[in-house]
Amino acid sequence: MRVLVTGASGHLGAAIVPELVEAGHHVIGLARSDSAAAAVTALGATPRRGDLDDLDEIRAAAADSDGVIHLAFKHDQMLSGNMAGAVVADLAAVHALGDALAGTGKPLVGTSGTLLVANLGRPATEEDLGAPGGRGDAERAVIGFADRGVRSSVVRVPPITHSLLDRHGFARSLIRIAQEKGIAGYPGDGASRWPAGHTLDVGHLYCVALERAPAGSRLHAAGDEGIPQREIAQSIGAHLALPVAGIPDERLDEHFGFLAMILRLDNPTSTLTTRRITGWEPAHPGLIADFDQADYFTAPAPQS
Protein backbone atom coordinates (compact mmCIF):
# COMPACT_ATOMS: atom_id res chain seq x y z
CA MET A 1 0.00 0.00 0.00
CA ARG A 2 1.23 3.50 -0.83
CA VAL A 3 0.59 5.44 2.41
CA LEU A 4 0.75 9.21 2.83
CA VAL A 5 1.71 10.30 6.35
CA THR A 6 1.50 13.97 7.30
CA GLY A 7 3.66 14.94 10.25
CA ALA A 8 5.84 11.93 9.48
CA SER A 9 8.97 13.48 11.02
CA GLY A 10 7.33 14.09 14.41
CA HIS A 11 7.03 12.11 17.64
CA LEU A 12 4.29 9.72 16.49
CA GLY A 13 5.67 9.55 12.97
CA ALA A 14 8.92 8.17 14.37
CA ALA A 15 6.96 5.13 15.56
CA ILE A 16 4.41 4.81 12.77
CA VAL A 17 6.61 5.16 9.69
CA PRO A 18 9.08 2.37 10.58
CA GLU A 19 6.22 0.01 11.43
CA LEU A 20 4.54 0.68 8.10
CA VAL A 21 7.80 0.23 6.21
CA GLU A 22 8.51 -3.03 8.08
CA ALA A 23 5.04 -4.24 7.07
CA GLY A 24 5.92 -3.67 3.41
CA HIS A 25 4.11 -0.41 2.76
CA HIS A 26 5.59 2.38 0.64
CA VAL A 27 5.40 5.44 2.88
CA ILE A 28 5.34 9.01 1.59
CA GLY A 29 6.06 11.54 4.32
CA LEU A 30 4.87 15.12 3.88
CA ALA A 31 7.82 17.32 4.82
CA ARG A 32 7.71 21.08 5.25
CA SER A 33 11.50 21.66 5.48
CA ASP A 34 14.83 20.18 4.49
CA SER A 35 15.38 18.92 8.05
CA ALA A 36 11.95 17.26 8.07
CA ALA A 37 12.68 15.66 4.70
CA ALA A 38 15.97 14.29 6.05
CA ALA A 39 14.17 12.87 9.10
CA VAL A 40 11.54 11.23 6.89
CA THR A 41 14.25 9.65 4.76
CA ALA A 42 16.05 8.37 7.86
CA LEU A 43 12.84 6.62 8.93
CA GLY A 44 12.74 4.73 5.64
CA ALA A 45 10.08 6.79 3.88
CA THR A 46 10.09 8.98 0.78
CA PRO A 47 9.73 12.70 1.52
CA ARG A 48 7.28 14.85 -0.41
CA ARG A 49 7.60 18.58 0.17
CA GLY A 50 4.52 20.40 1.41
CA ASP A 51 2.82 21.74 4.51
CA LEU A 52 -0.65 22.28 5.95
CA ASP A 53 -1.06 25.57 4.11
CA ASP A 54 -0.46 23.99 0.70
CA LEU A 55 -3.90 22.48 0.22
CA ASP A 56 -3.44 21.75 -3.47
CA GLU A 57 -0.32 19.71 -2.69
CA ILE A 58 -2.13 17.89 0.13
CA ARG A 59 -4.99 16.94 -2.21
CA ALA A 60 -2.57 15.75 -4.88
CA ALA A 61 -0.53 13.72 -2.42
CA ALA A 62 -3.66 12.09 -1.00
CA ALA A 63 -5.02 11.34 -4.46
CA ASP A 64 -1.74 9.57 -5.29
CA SER A 65 -2.00 7.37 -2.20
CA ASP A 66 -3.82 4.19 -1.20
CA GLY A 67 -4.39 5.52 2.30
CA VAL A 68 -3.58 8.47 4.56
CA ILE A 69 -2.52 8.91 8.18
CA HIS A 70 -2.88 12.55 9.24
CA LEU A 71 -0.62 13.50 12.17
CA ALA A 72 0.47 17.03 11.32
CA PHE A 73 -0.67 19.96 13.45
CA LYS A 74 0.71 23.46 13.87
CA HIS A 75 2.03 22.91 17.39
CA ASP A 76 4.22 26.00 17.12
CA GLN A 77 1.13 28.17 16.65
CA MET A 78 -0.65 26.39 19.51
CA LEU A 79 2.25 26.98 21.91
CA SER A 80 2.54 30.62 20.85
CA GLY A 81 -1.11 31.23 21.80
CA ASN A 82 -2.69 30.99 18.35
CA MET A 83 -4.64 27.80 18.95
CA ALA A 84 -7.52 29.10 16.82
CA GLY A 85 -5.24 29.51 13.81
CA ALA A 86 -3.79 26.02 14.27
CA VAL A 87 -7.30 24.54 14.48
CA VAL A 88 -8.42 26.32 11.30
CA ALA A 89 -5.38 25.06 9.38
CA ASP A 90 -5.93 21.50 10.60
CA LEU A 91 -9.59 21.50 9.63
CA ALA A 92 -8.76 22.79 6.13
CA ALA A 93 -6.15 20.05 5.71
CA VAL A 94 -8.63 17.38 6.84
CA HIS A 95 -11.17 18.53 4.26
CA ALA A 96 -8.50 18.54 1.53
CA LEU A 97 -7.46 14.98 2.39
CA GLY A 98 -11.04 13.73 2.65
CA ASP A 99 -12.11 15.38 -0.58
CA ALA A 100 -9.25 13.67 -2.41
CA LEU A 101 -10.27 10.24 -1.08
CA ALA A 102 -14.05 10.64 -1.37
CA GLY A 103 -15.75 7.72 -3.11
CA THR A 104 -12.63 5.53 -3.16
CA GLY A 105 -13.16 3.39 -0.05
CA LYS A 106 -9.55 4.13 0.91
CA PRO A 107 -8.58 4.63 4.57
CA LEU A 108 -8.09 8.02 6.20
CA VAL A 109 -6.86 7.96 9.80
CA GLY A 110 -7.11 11.28 11.61
CA THR A 111 -5.79 12.46 14.94
CA SER A 112 -7.73 13.71 17.94
CA GLY A 113 -7.30 13.63 21.71
CA THR A 114 -8.98 11.94 24.66
CA LEU A 115 -9.18 15.32 26.43
CA LEU A 116 -12.04 16.21 24.08
CA VAL A 117 -14.22 13.95 26.23
CA ALA A 118 -13.02 14.87 29.73
CA ASN A 119 -14.92 15.65 32.95
CA LEU A 120 -17.74 13.18 32.29
CA GLY A 121 -17.71 11.80 35.82
CA ARG A 122 -16.93 8.33 34.41
CA PRO A 123 -14.49 6.79 31.94
CA ALA A 124 -14.95 8.29 28.48
CA THR A 125 -15.90 5.81 25.78
CA GLU A 126 -15.26 5.85 22.06
CA GLU A 127 -18.95 6.60 21.56
CA ASP A 128 -18.77 9.84 23.58
CA LEU A 129 -18.68 13.01 21.50
CA GLY A 130 -16.90 16.21 22.42
CA ALA A 131 -18.46 19.64 22.32
CA PRO A 132 -18.46 21.49 18.98
CA GLY A 133 -15.50 23.71 18.25
CA GLY A 134 -11.75 23.40 18.58
CA ARG A 135 -10.02 20.22 17.43
CA GLY A 136 -13.31 18.37 17.82
CA ASP A 137 -14.43 19.86 14.51
CA ALA A 138 -11.60 18.10 12.69
CA GLU A 139 -12.52 14.83 14.40
CA ARG A 140 -16.13 15.17 13.27
CA ALA A 141 -15.01 16.07 9.75
CA VAL A 142 -12.88 12.91 9.48
CA ILE A 143 -15.72 10.73 10.78
CA GLY A 144 -18.12 12.47 8.40
CA PHE A 145 -16.13 11.29 5.39
CA ALA A 146 -17.38 7.77 6.16
CA ASP A 147 -20.63 8.92 4.56
CA ARG A 148 -18.72 9.92 1.44
CA GLY A 149 -17.09 6.62 0.65
CA VAL A 150 -13.95 6.92 2.77
CA ARG A 151 -12.97 4.29 5.36
CA SER A 152 -12.26 7.03 7.86
CA SER A 153 -11.32 6.67 11.51
CA VAL A 154 -9.84 8.81 14.27
CA VAL A 155 -7.27 7.88 16.89
CA ARG A 156 -7.78 9.80 20.12
CA VAL A 157 -4.31 10.22 21.61
CA PRO A 158 -3.92 10.52 25.41
CA PRO A 159 -2.40 13.73 26.80
CA ILE A 160 0.76 11.89 27.85
CA THR A 161 2.35 9.80 25.11
CA HIS A 162 5.68 8.59 26.46
CA SER A 163 8.82 6.74 25.38
CA LEU A 164 12.41 7.37 24.37
CA LEU A 165 10.96 8.97 21.23
CA ASP A 166 9.21 11.66 23.31
CA ARG A 167 11.33 14.82 23.32
CA HIS A 168 8.83 17.63 23.96
CA GLY A 169 5.62 16.05 25.29
CA PHE A 170 3.63 16.85 28.40
CA ALA A 171 5.58 14.33 30.52
CA ARG A 172 8.80 16.22 29.86
CA SER A 173 7.01 19.52 30.49
CA LEU A 174 5.83 18.33 33.92
CA ILE A 175 9.36 17.21 34.77
CA ARG A 176 10.83 20.52 33.62
CA ILE A 177 8.29 22.49 35.67
CA ALA A 178 9.13 20.41 38.76
CA GLN A 179 12.83 21.10 38.25
CA GLU A 180 12.23 24.83 37.83
CA LYS A 181 9.84 25.17 40.77
CA GLY A 182 11.69 22.82 43.11
CA ILE A 183 8.49 20.88 43.78
CA ALA A 184 6.61 18.11 42.00
CA GLY A 185 3.15 19.57 41.98
CA TYR A 186 -0.30 18.27 41.12
CA PRO A 187 -3.61 20.13 40.85
CA GLY A 188 -5.73 20.27 44.01
CA ASP A 189 -5.99 16.91 45.74
CA GLY A 190 -4.43 15.14 42.77
CA ALA A 191 -7.39 12.81 42.27
CA SER A 192 -8.06 13.86 38.66
CA ARG A 193 -6.96 11.15 36.25
CA TRP A 194 -5.10 11.24 32.96
CA PRO A 195 -4.73 8.42 30.46
CA ALA A 196 -1.31 7.73 28.98
CA GLY A 197 0.07 5.64 26.16
CA HIS A 198 3.48 4.36 25.10
CA THR A 199 4.46 5.87 21.75
CA LEU A 200 4.93 2.45 20.16
CA ASP A 201 1.48 1.32 21.31
CA VAL A 202 -0.15 4.53 20.11
CA GLY A 203 1.68 4.28 16.80
CA HIS A 204 0.64 0.66 16.37
CA LEU A 205 -3.02 1.62 16.76
CA TYR A 206 -2.67 4.02 13.81
CA CYS A 207 -1.27 1.18 11.70
CA VAL A 208 -4.08 -1.14 12.79
CA ALA A 209 -6.64 1.56 11.99
CA LEU A 210 -5.15 2.05 8.52
CA GLU A 211 -5.43 -1.66 7.79
CA ARG A 212 -8.79 -2.61 9.30
CA ALA A 213 -10.69 -0.01 11.35
CA PRO A 214 -14.36 0.15 10.31
CA ALA A 215 -15.49 3.37 8.63
CA GLY A 216 -16.57 5.99 11.17
CA SER A 217 -14.55 4.53 14.07
CA ARG A 218 -13.28 6.55 17.01
CA LEU A 219 -10.40 4.72 18.72
CA HIS A 220 -8.71 5.29 22.09
CA ALA A 221 -4.94 4.78 22.28
CA ALA A 222 -4.59 4.57 26.07
CA GLY A 223 -2.42 1.94 27.73
CA ASP A 224 -2.94 3.49 31.17
CA GLU A 225 -6.64 4.34 31.20
CA GLY A 226 -6.48 6.79 34.10
CA ILE A 227 -3.53 7.61 36.39
CA PRO A 228 -4.27 9.99 39.31
CA GLN A 229 -2.17 13.09 38.78
CA ARG A 230 -0.95 12.77 42.36
CA GLU A 231 0.73 9.47 41.41
CA ILE A 232 2.41 11.05 38.39
CA ALA A 233 3.78 13.84 40.60
CA GLN A 234 4.91 11.34 43.25
CA SER A 235 6.93 9.43 40.67
CA ILE A 236 8.49 12.64 39.33
CA GLY A 237 9.30 13.79 42.86
CA ALA A 238 10.91 10.47 43.76
CA HIS A 239 13.12 10.54 40.66
CA LEU A 240 14.17 14.15 41.22
CA ALA A 241 14.38 13.94 45.04
CA LEU A 242 11.89 16.82 45.27
CA PRO A 243 8.95 17.37 47.64
CA VAL A 244 5.48 16.58 46.29
CA ALA A 245 2.48 18.78 46.99
CA GLY A 246 -0.91 19.82 45.71
CA ILE A 247 -1.16 23.22 44.03
CA PRO A 248 -4.32 25.20 44.90
CA ASP A 249 -6.59 26.10 42.01
CA GLU A 250 -5.83 29.82 42.31
CA ARG A 251 -2.11 29.11 41.79
CA LEU A 252 -2.32 26.61 38.94
CA ASP A 253 -1.75 29.20 36.20
CA GLU A 254 1.28 30.61 37.99
CA HIS A 255 2.77 27.18 38.69
CA PHE A 256 2.00 25.22 35.51
CA GLY A 257 1.67 27.94 32.86
CA PHE A 258 0.09 26.71 29.61
CA LEU A 259 -0.58 23.28 31.15
CA ALA A 260 -2.83 24.65 33.90
CA MET A 261 -6.04 24.59 31.89
CA ILE A 262 -5.79 20.95 30.88
CA LEU A 263 -4.43 19.77 34.24
CA ARG A 264 -7.82 20.72 35.64
CA LEU A 265 -9.45 18.04 33.47
CA ASP A 266 -10.38 14.58 34.74
CA ASN A 267 -10.02 12.20 31.80
CA PRO A 268 -10.30 8.49 32.64
CA THR A 269 -10.63 6.74 29.29
CA SER A 270 -12.03 3.35 28.32
CA THR A 271 -10.50 1.33 25.48
CA LEU A 272 -13.01 -1.53 25.44
CA THR A 273 -14.52 -0.67 22.06
CA THR A 274 -11.11 -0.07 20.49
CA ARG A 275 -9.87 -3.47 21.58
CA ARG A 276 -13.06 -5.21 20.50
CA ILE A 277 -13.26 -3.84 16.97
CA THR A 278 -9.55 -3.76 16.11
CA GLY A 279 -7.87 -6.40 18.28
CA TRP A 280 -5.33 -3.79 19.42
CA GLU A 281 -3.65 -4.42 22.77
CA PRO A 282 -0.95 -2.26 24.39
CA ALA A 283 2.28 -4.20 24.82
CA HIS A 284 4.78 -1.66 26.20
CA PRO A 285 5.42 -0.20 29.68
CA GLY A 286 2.94 2.16 31.29
CA LEU A 287 3.92 5.70 32.25
CA ILE A 288 5.17 5.06 35.80
CA ALA A 289 7.20 2.05 34.65
CA ASP A 290 8.56 4.07 31.73
CA PHE A 291 9.73 6.78 34.13
CA ASP A 292 11.95 4.04 35.58
CA GLN A 293 13.15 2.74 32.21
CA ALA A 294 13.33 5.63 29.72
CA ASP A 295 15.59 8.68 29.79
CA TYR A 296 13.17 11.19 31.29
CA PHE A 297 15.48 11.97 34.22
CA THR A 298 18.83 11.59 32.47
CA ALA A 299 18.33 13.45 29.18
CA PRO A 300 18.62 17.27 29.12
CA ALA A 301 15.33 19.00 29.95
CA PRO A 302 13.48 20.43 26.93
CA GLN A 303 13.49 24.18 26.48
CA SER A 304 10.33 26.16 27.28
Question: What does this entry look like structurally?
Answer:
Helix content is 40%, strand content 19%. The chain contains 13 helices and twelve strands. The strands form three sheets. It has a seven-stranded parallel beta sheet, with helices on both faces. A three-stranded mixed beta sheet has the order 7-9-11.
Summarize the SSE layout with pairings.
Elements: E1 2-6, H1 13-22, E2 26-31, H2 34-42, E3 46-49, H3 55-63, E4 67-70, H4 75-79, H5 83-101, E5 107-113, H6 136-144, E6 151-157, E7 160-162, H7 170-181, E8 184-187, E9 193-198, H8 199-212, E10 217-220, E11 224-228, H9 229-240, E12 244-247, H10 252-256, H11 260-263, H12 272-278, H13 287-293
Parallel strand pairs: 1-2, 1-4, 2-3, 4-5, 5-6, 6-10, 7-9, 8-12
Antiparallel strand pairs: 9-11
Helix pairs in contact: 1-8, 3-5, 5-6, 7-9, 9-13
Observed structural traits:
304 residues; alpha/beta; three-stranded mixed β-sheet; 13 helices; 12 strands; globular
Task: Explain briefly what this protein structure is.
This protein has 304 residues and is an alpha/beta fold. 40% of the residues lie in helices and 19% in strands. It has helices at 13-22, 34-42, 55-63, 75-79, 83-101, 136-144, 170-181, 199-212, 229-240, 252-256, 260-263, 272-278, 287-293; strands spanning 2-6, 26-31, 46-49, 67-70, 107-113, 151-157, 160-162, 184-187, 193-198, 217-220, 224-228, 244-247.
